[in-house]
Amino acid sequence: MPAEAIPPGLVLRSRAVGSVRRPAVKRTGSSSSGRSPRGGPRRLFEQVRRAWDRPLTAYYLILGSSLLITVLGLVMVYSASMIKALELSLPASYFFRKQFLAAMIGGALMAAAARMPAKLHRALAYPILVVTVFLMIVVQIPGIGMRVNGNQNWIYLGGPFQLQPSEFGKLALVLWGADLLARKQDKRLLTQWKHMLVPLVPVAFLLLGLIMLGGDMGTTMILSAILFGLLWLAGAPTRLFAGVLSVAGSLAVLFIKTSPNRMGRLACIGATDPGPQDKCWQAVHGIYALASGGWFGSGLGASVEKWGQLPEPHTDFIFAITGEELGLAGTLSVLALFAALGYAGIRVAGRTEDPFVRYAAGGVTTWIVAQAVINIGAVLGLLPIAGVPLPLFSYGGSALLPTMFAVGLLISFARDDPAARAALAMRQPRVSWKSMRRRVKKRPSGER
User: Fold this and answer.
1) Is the pLDDT of residue 346 over 70?
2) How deeply is 408 buried, as exposed, middle or buried, from its count of CB atoms within 10 A (0-12, 13-18, 19+)?
3) Please, which residues have CB within 8 angstroms of residue 352's CB and are 6 or more apart in sequence?
4) Which H or E element spans position 147?
5) pTM, whole model, 2 decimals?
6) Rounded to whole angstroms, how far apart are CA atoms 216 and 385?
7) How far is C-alpha 199 from the geometric centre of its chain's CA atoms?
């Protein structure tokens, strides 16, 4: 090769291969590894972004985060409820066994919901709503409904089992509201404010009224959040949204002003002293529990506040016991799991073309995230104590069952995404046991 034909960016080297000398071409201006010195962080970012954008990311996030929250919740329920059970002359594992049974039933419901198609979920919307409204009416009948902590929202089922119908009202509103808005969107009726409000808002206010008859302000706040989430997903105009919000806010102020108990809870926001008659005892000791945990906590089972100082350590204030025993690392882990679950739910709602899936996924995500924010905000002293459990984490079968079914909804929607369905089909084994048996039977006897 003549020298004038060599490109200026190439350098010739000679190396012996046997008796033949071949020119080896080496490009100048690049490192020996072929990588740009600046490409490391950028390449890593691109790899993480591609992994985050995979079709099954939402599916694995929902499944993994929900199971981890539930399992960690079982551990903390056992740790936080031992002393309470012994105070009631019960076995130390009494509350844990009830929660474990509820988790097993909830796991079956979650698996069933994850396998149901969207059409079956829509078919269940009206029956669940009718049964829930009926039970919420029955719970107000004297002699049938039970009053617990000042709220009459429980039905005694026999033995140690009770049922709180208002917890199933969240699931009923999500399914029925999503089905209603999806049908109206298919008929292009959501452009009119009458069809956007009626009958969604009246039915939601019926549920809210039945819950408030029992005095449960916390569950009312969560159902209100679900209603506003559905209206926002439906594209409600600002004036309509503000109008419904102003009506709900006015009713909330009225209910708070007319209840000394709720006014006292509102006054305990940010309290550092129990105050007169220990009105802020629970809020203050929740802060004590979090403050004494440090970075990594005092150790699992080593909480001091659960020895009678902190009321409701295994239900409303289980997050405080988690902070005391597992420290800041434990509480941040719980927050990260809820953030992952919320992100995955938003991703499912944002990537689907089915209006029912979008409304239902958005409603479930609003429900879980709003309830977690209300519970954790009360423990941190940023919000009034509303008496709502931490979803999938706190003790309470009536709250756990519908929540796990709702998580099953999200898993079903994540699986039904076309890209996720194709990715799951590629991971299934191509050869089944029946085909292997047929192949073995077809072989000659000498080849077996």
Assistant:
1) yes
2) buried
3) 358, 361, 413, 417
4) strand 145-148
5) 0.85
6) 12
7) 27
